[in-house]
Amino acid sequence: MRTEDSTLRPLRPAHRRRWAAVLAVIVAVVLGTATAPVAAAAPGPNTGFALPFSGAPGFEYLAPPKLTDRAQLNQPLGQKAADRIAAGMGLSPKDALSEKQYRQLLSGGGIGGSRDAAKIIDACLIILTNTKGRPMFGDSVVGSYGLYVNKQGMLQSPANASAPTRQVNALIAPGGYVGNWLRANGATHTLLALYRSAYTIEIPFGFVSQQMSGAAQLVTNTKGGVTSTVGMSMAPPLWLVNFALLYIVKPSLAAAMPAYWAPIPQPVAAAIKASPTGQVPWSKYRSYFE
């Protein structure tokens, strides 16, 4: 077997069955309490991701494919593709916030607004749209790898415990800041649209995936005899959940998300996996991305 990165291995059959059973229970509960698009009955495409990292089979096709050409690296989706994916998830542009609501949310304004919460949300939008033309610290553009470089110059997964994109989970949880803010500021229709979309179906898969992935928050992909590793944010359930959130905030932000995922260079993936914090210095590993 050819290996681009063998530092992470697929779940053993027994573990896979156990997590599949857990997911079946969680998804059954979710579907029993929310109206969402019905996933196709047929198995999803063979993307190379295993449960729970593949997400709901009927929506897996909406997630970014692995790049086949270097020119696709860190390319943004574009609005046409973003609208198509949103429609497949059960969302449309009319479900998004108004321009006024968008600006209030990001500034911590409106009824019950919080500047601290707004800073976390704004940081998430920047991290998840780290594509061509949208560099971050040290002129880094590594969105397709499911990675980003923080203000301290550390390369890590957006699902890292220290990342705003992980910390925001408390804000978007039911009964949390975002839901309360939307209700208080005339955006209940946006919240309902989100809960009725595939977002609700994908959340359990993303939650379990994060719980299984330790400090590194990387995921293994095996397809066509090749095993590679990518950051958790590019696995189907996490990517689709993040896409839905960005789309309802502002569709053009979702259009700036990565259109393809790329394997993390093996030495970099191994270093992130070995790090107790799931972080490595960008300055040390930058050359692998050039």
Which sequence of strands runs across the widest sheet? 1-5-4
Strand content: 5-15%
- The total beta strand count reads 6
Distance between the termini: 27 Å
Helix-strand topology string: EHHHHEEHHHHHEEHHHEH
Radius of gyration from the CA trace? 18 Å
Tell me, rounded to a whole number, the average pLDDT.
88
Poorly predicted regions: 1-44
Query: How would a crystallographer describe the biggest sheet?
Result: 3 strands, mixed
Could you characterize what this model shows?
- With 290 residues, the protein is mostly helical.
- The chain contains 13 helices and six strands.
- β2 and β3 form a beta hairpin.
- The protein is globular, with a radius of gyration of 18 Å.
- The relative contact order is 0.22.
Task: Summarize the helices and strands and which ones pair or pack.
Blueprint: E1 2-3, H1 13-33, H2 79-89, H3 99-107, H4 115-128, E2 148-149, E3 154-156, H5 164-167, H6 169-172, H7 177-184, H8 188-196, H9 199-212, E4 218-223, E5 226-231, H10 236-249, H11 251-254, H12 266-274, E6 279-281, H13 282-285
Parallel strand pairs: 1-5
Antiparallel strand pairs: 2-3, 3-6, 4-5
Helix pairs in contact: 1-9, 9-10
Summarize the structure in short:
This protein has 290 residues and is mainly alpha-helical.
Main features:
mainly alpha, 3-stranded mixed sheet, 13 helices
